[in-house]
Amino acid sequence: MNPFSSRPLAEIPDNGALGVVVPHEAAWEHVTGQALYTDDLPYRSANVLYAWPLQVFAAHARIDSLDATTARTMPGVIRVLSAEDVPGINDYGDIGDETLFPDVIQYHGQPVAWVLAESLEEARLASDAIEVSYTELPSIITIQDAIEAEAFQGPRAILQRGDADTALANAPHRISGGIDIQGQEHFYLETQASFAMIDESGQVFIQSSTQAPSHTQEVAARVLGISSSQVTVQCLRMGGGFGGKETNANAFASVAALGAVLTGRPVSVRLNRTQDLTMTGKRGGFHATWEAGLDDEGHILAYKAVLTADGGFSVDLSPAVVSRALCHVDNAYYLPNVQVTGQIARTNKTSHTAFRGFGAPAGMIVTEDLLGQASTKLGIDEEEIRRRNFYAPGQSTPYGQEVSQAKRMDDIWDTLKKTSDYENRLAQVAEFNAEHQHVKRGLAITPVKFGVSFNKPVLNQAGALVLIYRDGSVLINHGGTEMGQGLHTKMLQVAATTLGVPLRRVRLAPTRTDKVPNTSATSASTGSDLNGGAVKNACEMILDRLAPVAAGMLGVHSNDVRITGDIVSGLGVEKTVSWTELIETAYLQRVSLSAAGYFRTDGIHFNLSTFKGNPFKYFSRGAAVAEVEVDGYTGAYTTRQVDLLHDVGSSLSPLIDLGQIEGAFVQGAGWLTQEDLRWDTSDGPDRGKLLTQAASTYKLPSFSELPQVFNVDLYVHPTDDGSVYGSKAVGEPPLMLAIAVREALRVTAAAFGEPGVQVELPSPATPEAVYWALEKARRPATAPAPVAE
Amino acid sequence: MTETANQAGTGAAATALSVNGSHMSVDGVAPHTTTLQWLRSNGITGPKEGCAEGECGACAVMVSRPDGERGTRWTSINSCLVPAAALAGQEIYTAEGLASSDALHPVQQEMATRGGSQCGYCTPGFISSMAAEYYREDRSGCSCGTGGCGSSPTTSDIVSPAHAEPSGNALPWPLVVDDAAERLETWLPPRTEGDSAAKIQPATRYEETSTHEPEIGPNGFDLHALSGNLCRCTGYRPIRDAAFALADVDPADPIAQRRERPAPVSSPLRIESPGGTFVRPANLEEALGLLTGTPQAVLLAGSTDWGVELTIKHRRAPLTIAIDQLAELRQFHVTDDHLEIGAALTLSEVERLLDGSVPLLAHLFPLFASRLIRNAATIGGNLGTGSPIGDIAPALLALDAELVLSSPRGDRTISLDDYFTGYRTSVRAEDELIRAVRIPTPLAPLSRFYKVAKRKYDDISSVAVAIAATVTDGGIEHIRIGVGGAAATTLRAKNTEAALLNKPWTAGTFEAAASIMLAEGTPMSDHRASAAYRSATLAQSIRRFYAEATS
């Protein structure tokens, strides 16, 4: 038996650096402006070239000619990159549908060439001087048009259990509906950035703001036609990712790398905000139609739906997004008879991609919309109808996975109802509404159950490198990237806890592909689970080697060695030695003080053709109560109070988890209410143009959207299995808590009308959307129809 | 520096400025180089570019601005908008300059320990805006009552009550690994012996208070100071808590002491570069002369509009004339029959000078862009750019305001109602500039400003409606309705005014007027709103005005 590594993964040691409130490991650098991001690096380097893209502003067009003769002669211009410069494969996708220097434009604003110049200003001016002519081709902009034209891409998925048609035919109540759920711009504050240079032996070093350094490395190597061993990718940190740097970064890293290889000089590719908004993929919209059968008590008996995702011009991550949407239509509810089809529309828009929640939010909204409608139709309270449909222990999901820890949902729900004073406030809201004509309030409660693990089993693996130096200091590296979510902080806590040393002994070095190879993207909320497992594994490998050394020093068996708080002790002996003494002794005895750790999530599998399996290691849960107030004159609203309770297992780092929950909630609320992506769908000259391509037109939540009262509690109950020290993933699940805001707006709009009035609310529920909804509720006969966009 | 350079020059004195206490120079810097680009290219990379149009605040820096006659007010502005040349002679602080060698600045300390940064990219900008508000001399207590109500919606237990909050003055960073340095442990909250169940559980629980203004902290911190700073990670709660936790300013703080001396005065200068010429004229006469000589010249005041032209539309001008510090454009007079507001006064300055005395503008200011923008944008600039939406114009139309236009031929005064001629066009001649805005007094006693937008603060209006009225027993004696967002220019809703004038104050009057308001202007559908919604909310503003004024 190995003294340290044979302990269970979820076993929580006392006296670790685990579960303590520590700020972000780089908070000091953040607040002093010292933290470096990729685009800060060119200013610390000499001889840098700056890149500017030539974007073609047509939704779909064939390039007839590209003439950079004049541009090449302009001041400061060093090189114009185009298709013929690519030594390897002119594509940055994995299946060949994403051309780096295209001859057919697939979306409005796609870049066809890049100018490298001594300054950004010179690169921009030269880009303007490139003469490009093209022939416009027919284009598809909306999902609806794509469905009509049967323009689909990637696989079609079908999730099926029982007999939905028969159950639907026999159900006492049948309802149906449809909803368009618009996408969302990531709007990471730091736009896409890559900085590439060539080292003395011709190898390529790319600093990139990427969530997936290994993938970026592979793509760049493919474009350059060289091996992965010749390309190193480093990510210092990102100024936000949210899924937007999972695949989006690869094209820009490849351009920077290509420029560096061809010129021998460092090349900076950094998108300005307009370029970022017009050139990078977003959360794609979904179009959903559904039918459901319910019994008199409101239990869902049959569930049929078709979910069509807007994939944009290429497949990208859309199949996985759709998989996750299908695996989350159930949310927290038992659906006995199910048939859900998922498909990907191909449109002439940027290639839509990962975004926090990854399809799950869309799947959940469809079902919450359904339950909201059912509540009105059946006259069952909104809270009650949800509660009645919760999974019971032993029940399984439509894809065949037994729902573990099912009772957590009930416990969270009941606890939150108490702490948020739900019942009393519901009565207060009704009282308020009876007294006010022009302003109404509404309260809603919604649950979240989110499966944790990559839907694609192969991605559930990670590596780490742990080095202990002679002075006892520890340096860790792992494959995960830091985008603000606090992964590095948690990894420091895992390493310090595992080794039994104070946090201050451990340092973390930036993510690099030459330290840890073949890493999965930091996404799907798996960063801490996977990399934490790998860091812990590496630490334990070293501890297993240190144990005999300590045993010799202390005169005990190596299984009886304990290390906590920098002190090495043995069971039953008084004598102790310090951590530094142990390390020095181990070094003198020629014991290896470094290890490459590895982790794979055991017990998960998924068959994509049958859509059955056990894709998730566990489920993360939460619930939200939101209260809003809506102004009847304009549809403008205020979020008066939000109460959240979210499952974090044991919580590796509570302050980090709190920040993730609050941040995800506000981001989700932004998506569902005010963030409004608009494309030109007309047949005019700007067809396909993103109309909201600036911070002035695409409005993120600001201070005014912070709920006036925002009570957030962690549901701290260590999980029994599956993740490091009993913790649970927290990156994505709380985003879907924001569905409570949408539901609250829906019931509030309905409150302007007679009781029982049915209200349909588009997404996002902008003030205008809420206005038309409440107008329809209060003046069903005379209200003008909302203007279709 | 102030005495010697009384004439335009390119000398080191005129182009010098202070950044984080160090001397730097903008000599030879092109007029299209923004302060942000210039700082970053000089290795000061704390300020970040998030949007390059003054919408996100990641680039915010603190500058010294005049505070009345004698003092200096630390003011946070968007460095992405202002040409570096315009800050010659000024003093700037970025996040890098606030920490001392052995301690974080209080603002930094609170932000760091409370989880106010996640990805950290927006953080330096937040630090700047928060520091400026921290140093605001009249920041004290909330405005709920004398000395404040003593309560606030602050988190009551970020960490469970058994443990001290991880604040205090000790510098906990950077993380250190050598045994000698124990500093990290000084802020780690004490641990309960061996009991993992007792580990700290953070939560946010708010003390509910019915009387408190949620946007003002018990320390007087006005959250609107941060309305121009966007954060995509935190959801803002920890940032609010950090802001509300700030103590009083240490009198020994040198940045605080700087407030007691006059703000720096930029010397007249001329900077020539291949990218164009930047001139800070000595007086209005020189400015008008330059404008007459170069019709393509750009007048620069707060640069909140021109900055966007530079960074987003890549416009360049052969000559940039800085008029932001011209004394002739910075006058504020109150006479028997009007108020005169200098065109180059920033909106924040106007807000302070008026101090609520024009209620319609007091309603408007918090809804106008963000504090970061109002700290730079001028009232003259807002009218000069002729935006059909610009929220000031509808309000000034309702106030019957006039503009004083200066040219080498002298001054002329025209009604704002006659000023706009079309989309971003006006009767202003090429050699004219707006010197001042006049608001006739006494003001109509009843006024409201309504703004419809996707976001409550810091958004561009879908429609804006300003209403000013005088009502007597006999009915509506005087009515002015200014409208933005409903046509190619801001306009007065004259048909609606006619439907209300001399009519009795009844619901019926306003219902009839609302149906006329529905047809005012020629609203269009765009990404902000549909034409139908614009018209509907125009009409609703009339109903709302009646309902609010009646109750």
TrEMBL record, chain A:
<dbReference type="Pfam" id="PF20256">
    <property type="entry name" value="MoCoBD_2"/>
</dbReference>
<protein>
    <submittedName>
        <fullName>Xanthine dehydrogenase molybdopterin binding subunit</fullName>
    </submittedName>
</protein>
<dbReference type="InterPro" id="IPR037165">
    <property type="entry name" value="AldOxase/xan_DH_Mopterin-bd_sf"/>
</dbReference>
<dbReference type="Pfam" id="PF01315">
    <property type="entry name" value="Ald_Xan_dh_C"/>
</dbReference>
<dbReference type="Pfam" id="PF02738">
    <property type="entry name" value="MoCoBD_1"/>
</dbReference>
<dbReference type="InterPro" id="IPR008274">
    <property type="entry name" value="AldOxase/xan_DH_MoCoBD1"/>
</dbReference>
<feature type="domain" description="Aldehyde oxidase/xanthine dehydrogenase a/b hammerhead">
    <location>
        <begin position="32"/>
        <end position="138"/>
    </location>
</feature>
<dbReference type="InterPro" id="IPR016208">
    <property type="entry name" value="Ald_Oxase/xanthine_DH-like"/>
</dbReference>
<dbReference type="InterPro" id="IPR046867">
    <property type="entry name" value="AldOxase/xan_DH_MoCoBD2"/>
</dbReference>
<dbReference type="InterPro" id="IPR000674">
    <property type="entry name" value="Ald_Oxase/Xan_DH_a/b"/>
</dbReference>
<dbReference type="InterPro" id="IPR036856">
    <property type="entry name" value="Ald_Oxase/Xan_DH_a/b_sf"/>
</dbReference>
<dbReference type="InterPro" id="IPR014309">
    <property type="entry name" value="Xanthine_DH_Mopterin-bd_su"/>
</dbReference>
TrEMBL record, chain B:
<dbReference type="InterPro" id="IPR005107">
    <property type="entry name" value="CO_DH_flav_C"/>
</dbReference>
<dbReference type="InterPro" id="IPR012175">
    <property type="entry name" value="Xanth_DH_ssu_bac"/>
</dbReference>
<dbReference type="InterPro" id="IPR036318">
    <property type="entry name" value="FAD-bd_PCMH-like_sf"/>
</dbReference>
<dbReference type="Pfam" id="PF00941">
    <property type="entry name" value="FAD_binding_5"/>
</dbReference>
<keyword id="KW-0274">FAD</keyword>
<dbReference type="InterPro" id="IPR051312">
    <property type="entry name" value="Diverse_Substr_Oxidored"/>
</dbReference>
<dbReference type="InterPro" id="IPR036683">
    <property type="entry name" value="CO_DH_flav_C_dom_sf"/>
</dbReference>
<dbReference type="InterPro" id="IPR012675">
    <property type="entry name" value="Beta-grasp_dom_sf"/>
</dbReference>
<feature type="domain" description="2Fe-2S ferredoxin-type">
    <location>
        <begin position="13"/>
        <end position="98"/>
    </location>
</feature>
<dbReference type="Pfam" id="PF03450">
    <property type="entry name" value="CO_deh_flav_C"/>
</dbReference>
<dbReference type="InterPro" id="IPR016169">
    <property type="entry name" value="FAD-bd_PCMH_sub2"/>
</dbReference>
<dbReference type="InterPro" id="IPR006058">
    <property type="entry name" value="2Fe2S_fd_BS"/>
</dbReference>
<keyword id="KW-0285">Flavoprotein</keyword>
<dbReference type="InterPro" id="IPR016166">
    <property type="entry name" value="FAD-bd_PCMH"/>
</dbReference>
<dbReference type="Pfam" id="PF01799">
    <property type="entry name" value="Fer2_2"/>
</dbReference>
<dbReference type="InterPro" id="IPR002346">
    <property type="entry name" value="Mopterin_DH_FAD-bd"/>
</dbReference>
<keyword id="KW-0479">Metal-binding</keyword>
<dbReference type="InterPro" id="IPR036010">
    <property type="entry name" value="2Fe-2S_ferredoxin-like_sf"/>
</dbReference>
<protein>
    <submittedName>
        <fullName>FAD binding domain-containing protein</fullName>
    </submittedName>
</protein>
<dbReference type="InterPro" id="IPR036884">
    <property type="entry name" value="2Fe-2S-bd_dom_sf"/>
</dbReference>
<keyword id="KW-0560">Oxidoreductase</keyword>
<keyword id="KW-0408">Iron</keyword>
